[in-house]
Automatic annotation (TrEMBL):
GO terms for molecular function: 1,4-alpha-oligoglucan phosphorylase activity. GO terms for biological process: carbohydrate metabolic process. Belongs to the glycosyl hydrolase 13 family. Sucrose phosphorylase subfamily. Keywords: Glycosyltransferase, Transferase. This is Sugar phosphorylase. Residues 8-431 form the Glycosyl hydrolase family 13 catalytic domain. The lineage of its organism: Bacteria, Bacillati, Bacillota, Bacilli, Bacillales.
Length: 489
């Protein structure tokens, strides 16, 4: 079944009211006509860390969130998208716990990457590691095996602890493929329509490479998992933070991709009051994308925009974001920093706060997102025009929590009363319902201080005009009676 060209929501299972049952009620009571594209539920599975991104299993839902039946019921009304951390699984999983007990005698040994699968003698070579795109200083962890009182080094790309909570899977193993198939069959059983392949760029480990999006091997794996998904009528969305050329290669191979460039380009246009870079980008980008402004991590910078931005100008924009309360995720590996040392991986903030909580600027940003070709996603904090949550950052020590506020039902009701939220809901409905968004897209010529975007289809059209100086946003469109309507967002 093809994906709906309509707006989707992104939310944690517990961020809009506390659990999945409440999320379903909130969706049905407030947003049934808003999120016609579906709902991306960030990991609801039992997890040992990283707010769900260190899954213990995909066969269960964390009891504090609810059950698979709750997912199935949401899926009866909304297309469900879930994350699948295809690169790794929690060390608390039954599979790795068996390995920790029995080591080389574990029935699940083939699932994991002991270092002898990379180096024959099992001893890591630093010159090989220096070439890799690292997410932490050392891409492996040492574990004590209980039965034999020996030690094993196992590949662990991610993790904030030592040893890591997230254990990489050996995707070459037939056992791994059997378990991945089991998980996908379970997704199908409970109405999951879309699976986001989180961290898929890291699945190939090959010495002498960055161990990130290793070609051509990555396409062999993607082809296998795509065939599996299609057999179950599930769409795939590979999630790859990388140089934009890699995203474009995925698009050329027919995959949906994320537009990780757009959030920065829109922010740059609104803050600098210039449409040049944004419009140049909109003229050339692939159309088969999911678009977003904000998410559970941050606004992508490096490596997503490498080669597209001047680091001096980017640092100036970053400094403005910092002045407005943002914090940063940084690149760790010297080899993957800019030549001048520029090392900003992501800008962490709410999109509303980084635009100085200015309603018109925020709605202009959303209007550009909605007019860009692709399926728009709106993060739950952005939906409610949420502001930076400094208390959560301080309480958790995690800078990403600045944009992960959990809303009570009372806070949701209060936020829905805000004028900016009501204006955003109206804009979402227009994006969902106006038929021209299924037609032809065009970036119209304009001054550098304006954005003009247009859609045409079957005699209908809608045209977006944004004045980047005043932040005034206007949409002209032809209604069902062939009247020209002017809509001030």
């Amino acid at each position: 079944m093809p994906l709906k060209n309509k707006v989707q929501l992104i939310s944690y299972p517990d961020s809009l009211g506390g659990d999945l049952k409440t999320l379903k009620n909130v969706l049905n009571s407030h947003f049934s006509e808003i999120f016609k594209g579906g709902v991306h539920i960030l990991p609801p599975f039992p997890s040992s860390g990283d707010r769900g991104f260190a899954p213990i299993t995909y066969l269960e839902i964390d009891p504090s969130f609810g059950t698979w039946d709750d997912i199935r019921e949401i899926g009866e009304r909304f297309d469900i998208l879930v994350d699948f951390m295809v690169n790794h699984i929690s060390q608390k999983s039954e599979y790795f716990q068996d390995f920790l007990r029995y080591g080389r005698n574990s029935k699940y040994l083939d699932l994991f990457l002991t270092l002898d699968k990379l180096w024959d003698d099992g001893i890591p070579v630093q010159k090989d590691i220096d070439k890799m795109f690292l997410r932490k200083p050392q891409p492996y962890s040492t574990f004590q095996i209980q039965e034999s009182d020996t030690y094993e080094k196992v590949w662990t790309t991610f993790g904030k602890t030592d040893p890591s909570e997230q254990i990489d899977l050996d995707i070459r193993s037939e056992m791994t493929k059997q378990i991945l198939t089991l998980f996908f069959e379970n997704f199908k059983k409970y109405n999951v329509k879309i699976v986001r392949l989180d961290a898929v760029g890291y699945v190939i480990k090959k010495l002498g490479t960055s161990c990130f999006f290793v070609e051509p091997e990555i396409y062999d794996f993607l082809g296998w998992i795509k065939d599996l998904a299609e057999s179950l009528e599930i769409e795939l969305l590979p999630e790859v933070h990388s140089h934009h050329s890699i995203q474009y290669k995925l698009a050329e191979h027919g995959y949906w991709i994320y537009d990780f460039i757009l959030p920065y380009r829109i922010l740059q246009a609104i803050i600098n009051q210039s449409s040049v870079a944004l419009c140049d980008y909109l003229k050339t980008r692939p159309a088969k994308q999911f678009t977003m402004l904000d998410c559970h991590d941050g606004i992508p910078v490096k490596p997503d925009l490498d080669g597209l931005i001047n680091s001096t100008e980017a640092q100036e924009l970053v400094n403005i974001c910092l002045d407005r309360g943002s914090n940063l995720s940084l690149i760790l590996s010297d080899e993957h920093k800019g030549e001048d040392g520029f090392d900003v991986h992501q800008i962490r903030c709410t999109y509303y706060s980084v635009l100085n909580c200015d309603d018109d600027s925020y709605l202009a940003a959303r209007a550009i997102q909605f007019f860009a070709p692709g399926i728009p996603q709106v993060y739950y904090v952005g939906l409610l025009a949420g502001e930076n949550d400094y208390e959560r950052v301080e309480a958790t020590g995690d800078g990403r929590e600045i944009n992960r506020h959990n809303y009570t039902l009372e806070e949701i009701e209060q936020s829905l009363q805000k004028e900016v939220v009501q204006r955003l809901l109206k804009l979402i409905q227009f994006r969902n319902d106006y038929e021209a968004f299924n037609g032809e897209f065009k970036v119209k010529e304009s001054s550098t201080e304006e954005v003009r975007l247009r859609w045409d289809h079957n005699g209908k059209y809608c045209e977006l005009l944004i004045d980047l100086i005043t932040k005034r946003t206007t949409i002209q469109y032809i209604d069902e009676n062939s009247n020209l309507i002017e809509y001030f967002v």
